[in-house]
Specification:
This is SGNH hydrolase-type esterase domain-containing protein. There is one protein chain. With about 375 residues, the protein is of the alpha/beta class. The protein has three domains: about 110 residues, no CATH class; about 60 residues, no CATH class; about 190 residues, Rossmann fold, CATH 3.40.50. The protein contains twelve helices and eight strands. The strands form two sheets. Strands 4-3-5-6-7-8 form a six-stranded parallel β-sheet. A two-stranded antiparallel ribbon has the order 1-2. The protein is elongated, with a radius of gyration of 37 Å.
Length: about 375
């Protein structure tokens, strides 16, 4: 640090001390400082610092808070000599100048440089631990910066102390106040529509602990089940247009087509389903369509040839699924539902309790999978 600068500040302090009862009078101090400064390049900075110190003396004429500010600023300057004297240190200003009494601040710096140095190291250690914890939490919790820090204290997205708790097993639980996918707080709407199978699954879901929403509330998601007994492909578009009178969905899960197998030629059914998907995409341009695979059956309404019906089902499923995937949609398969008696009721068409629960689990897993992994479009994944 320049000796001429330091000695000048010492002289300035003495001048200000002797003129505390008349802090507005500046000319003697300015004249004295100007004569003593050997390096004119620092003159403007020192004049600014003198002005700040005198302002502090004016604000607190009955104590020496301005002197404490000046001393602590010099200690900081000794650590960084290249810094400007003209810049007001906001931390020191709030600590000393903003306190009208000044008495509580005297003990803070009574030990001079050593006290400042120890306090500085303590703050640095605390800040290191603080930022380590913040970065670790943000990384593992996939948090935005706006969920950890806020400038005005009015953000609805920031995590507060009440959102953090420890479980009895020593697990840290953190509740995110707002949705990760919708910062406006509106839940994502998902429709599941189709034949009586969807209707029966909805009834079964009401008996489960996670309810009809399939425990997807944690993803800020609401499910609307709309199953209609005996629904065929020709009724699908009209059914969805009626639902559109109430809301627009984020995702639309469609489970239909099995009631048409055997009644319509495979080629025609395939074309009808693809045409229906095309019209629905135009009606819902912002909605992702999820094709729910047609399930096998023990008995078919329009044919007794189960083998031939399975071939038709396979071809139609593949054609519609490929079209949906090429259009950016999703595809849910049910590999765990097979043509066995324990999966179906006595009619060989509708699912049993076991079959319904497997269907629910798969639908739940598929929706969650698609919402969290947007690049994956098939569930269960076909990748080995």
């Amino acid at each position: 640090m320049d000796e001429c600068v330091f000695s000048d500040i010492e002289n300035t302090t003495q001048e200000v001390t002797s003129n505390m009862h008349n802090p507005i009078e500046t000319s003697p101090v300015v004249r004295h400082s100007t004569r003593e400064i050997k390096k004119p390049c620092r003159l403007q900075e020192l004049l600014k610092h003198m002005s700040v110190v005198r302002l502090g003396a004016k604000k607190n004429p009955n104590n020496l808070s301005w002197k404490l500010y000046d001393e602590q600023l010099r200690l900081r300057k000794s650590l960084d000599p290249a810094s400007s004297w003209a810049i007001v240190d906001p931390e020191l200003w709030l600590l000393y100048m903003a306190d009208s009494s000044g008495t509580q601040n005297l003990g803070v710096v009574s030990s001079g440089y050593n006290a400042f140095s120890a306090n500085r190291n303590l703050n640095r250690s605390y800040e290191v631990k603080l930022f380590k914890a913040a970065f670790s939490l943000a990384y593992h919790g996939v948090l935005r910066i706006g969920e950890l820090a806020v400038s005005n204290g009015k953000s609805a997205h920031i995590i507060s102390i009440s959102d953090v708790s420890w479980s009895s097993f020593g697990v840290l639980n953190i509740r995110v106040p707002s949705s990760k996918t919708d910062q406006l707080g509106k839940p994502a709407k998902i429709w599941i529509t189709g034949s009586s199978l969807v209707k029966n699954v909805f009834i079964e879901s009401r008996q489960r602990p996670d309810g009809t929403n399939l425990c997807l509330d944690r993803l800020n998601t609401e499910i609307w089940w709309q199953g209609k007994s005996g629904m065929v492909t020709s009724q699908l578009r009209r059914h969805i247009r009626i639902m559109l009178k109430y809301e627009d969905p984020l995702n639309l899960v469609i489970h239909v087509g099995a009631n048409d197998l055997g009644n319509i030629k495979t080629k025609d059914l395939r074309e009808n389903l693809i045409q229906a998907m095309t019209f629905i995409s135009k009606d819902l341009p912002d909605t992702k369509i999820v094709w729910s695979q047609m399930l096998p059956r023990l008995k078919w309404r329009y044919s007794n040839d189960s083998k031939a019906m399975e071939i038709c089902r396979y071809r139609v499923n593949n054609a519609v699924a490929n079209y949906i995937l090429e259009s950016g949609g999703y595809y849910i398969r049910y590999p765990d539902i097979s043509r066995t008696e324990n999966m179906y009721k006595s009619d060989g068409v509708h699912l049993s309790v076991i079959g319904n629960n497997i269907f629910i689990n798969t639908i739940q897993g598929g929706i969650e999978f698609f919402m969290l992994k947007t690049k994956c479009h098939v569930f269960p994944s076909t990748d080995k």
